[in-house]
Structure formats: C-alpha cells, structure tokens
Inverse folding.
C-alpha cells in the first residue's frame, strides 16, 4: 500500500469515527479508538479540520464539520423545492400533456431534479439522462437570463441550424426572455423538438429553479404564447409558495 493511500485510509477511519460518534469526541478518544500514533492522529485531524470535514467545539472536542452541514442544507433545499413544486408540475402536465421538468442551477450548468412524463406516446425523453448545452435549453436560457449561472463567452456549439452560435445572439435572446418572462427553444437542440421554461424566484428574489416543458415542435410551436403564459403563472405560484414556507418558519 502506498503512503498516499495509507494516509487516505487512516484519515477516512478518523473521519468515520468522528461523524458517527453519538457525541463530540476528544483527541485522546480518537488515538485510543484507532491505535494510531498520536502524531499521526494530530496531523490527520488538523488536515480534516482545515478542509471543513471536522471541527472542534468550545470544549475542544471533535465533531462533523461545516462541509457536512453545507451538504445537508443543499440536499434539504432541493427536497423541499421538489415537494413544493410537485402540484405545479402536475398541473402543467395536465394542461399541456407534454414532458414537464424542474431544474436548478449548479455552477455553470443546469441540473434536472424532477420530471413528469408526457401523456402522449410521442413525447420528450427523460432529461435526467441527457446532457443539454444550456444555450440550447429553455431551462438553461432562464438560468442565464436571470443570473443564476454565468453566460458563456465566445462561440457556442451549433447543434442545429437554429442553435444560437454566438454570445451576441445569446444576449439578444436573453433580453427577450427577461421581457416576456419565459424562454423558448425552437428546434435549437434537435430538429423537431421545442421547449419553454419560466423562472422560480427564492426569498431573495434570485432565481433558484426553473419549470419547463418540452415536446414535438408540431404540437408546441403554435402554442408558445399560451404555454409560456401558463409556465409564468405556475412558476409564480411556486415562487410565492417557497417564500411563504420560509416566512412561516
């Protein structure tokens, strides 16, 4: 076993001991439980603490660090969002019959967190399994338009003849998204596929998610305005619902 791998295994052993303990534990407890040299335990605990994996309380005892709290907080927020969005997604599905998605921003990408499948035999796919460049996605355009993810610079990948190919084209499109309140993708990711999306705002009026629909151009193209207005109305309801949940805590 290499020294690097051995160090990782020892650090993992200490971390597991700390985070699974019923209460904060001392440096001496860790030494006794692991049978490692005191200097090794001290060095590894310091490394774990520097990286937010463990922390010491006022008594100097070790417990799980801030990184675990951050992860739990993010996970809880997504779970709360999905639960609150479910009736919204179901209503949009019933009204349109198309595939309905809920997505959240993550770094410079869009992550699908919930989907209601199309009621039609010919419908959109399970988008959780598909990587879509944000500039060719209605959900992605919403995230760009309202600052949830950074707008790319330079040339953009052209997937069809209708895909936006430059930042200037994209910025012009995003201005329209902000003006009308929803994004439209017309055969920009794949010929014969259209999509629309509208933003969901959090308590600080920042976009925390987007609700969108997708399906065959032959069904959706003539309904852009109607479906867009529906998404704006329903995502607005979800935004207000999220704000009420926070204010009632």
């Amino acid at each position: 076993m290499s020294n690097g791998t051995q160090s990782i295994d020892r650090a993992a052993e200490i971390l597991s001991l700390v985070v699974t303990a019923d209460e904060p534990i001392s440096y001496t407890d860790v030494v006794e439980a692991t049978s490692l040299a005191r200097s090794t335990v001290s060095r590894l605990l310091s490394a774990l603490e520097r990286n937010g994996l463990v922390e010491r309380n006022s008594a100097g005892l070790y417990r799980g660090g801030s990184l675990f709290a951050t992860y739990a907080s993010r996970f809880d927020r997504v779970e709360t969002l999905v639960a609150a969005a479910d009736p919204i997604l179901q209503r949009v599905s019933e009204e349109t019959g198309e595939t309905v998605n809920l997505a959240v921003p993550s770094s410079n990408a869009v992550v699908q967190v919930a989907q209601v499948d199309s009621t039609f035999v010919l419908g959109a796919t399970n988008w959780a399994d598909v990587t879509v460049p944000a500039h060719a996605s209605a959900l992605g355009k919403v995230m760009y338009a309202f600052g949830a993810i950074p707008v790319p610079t330079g040339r953009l990948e052209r997937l069809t003849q209708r895909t936006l190919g430059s930042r200037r084209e994209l910025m012009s499109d995003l201005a329209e998204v902000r003006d009308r309140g929803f994004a439209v993708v017309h055969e920009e990711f794949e010929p014969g596929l259209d999509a629309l999306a509208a933003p969901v705002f959090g308590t600080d009026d920042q976009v925390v998610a987007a609700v969108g629909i997708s399906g065959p151009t032959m069904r959706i193209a003539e309904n852009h305005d109607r479906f867009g207005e529906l998404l704006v109305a329903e995502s607005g309801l979800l935004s207000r619902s999220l704000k009420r949940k926070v204010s009632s805590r």
Observations:
- The two ends are 51 Å apart (CA to CA).
- The first helix runs from residue 3 to 20.
- The domain at 74-245 is CATH 3.30.450.40 (Beta-Lactamase).
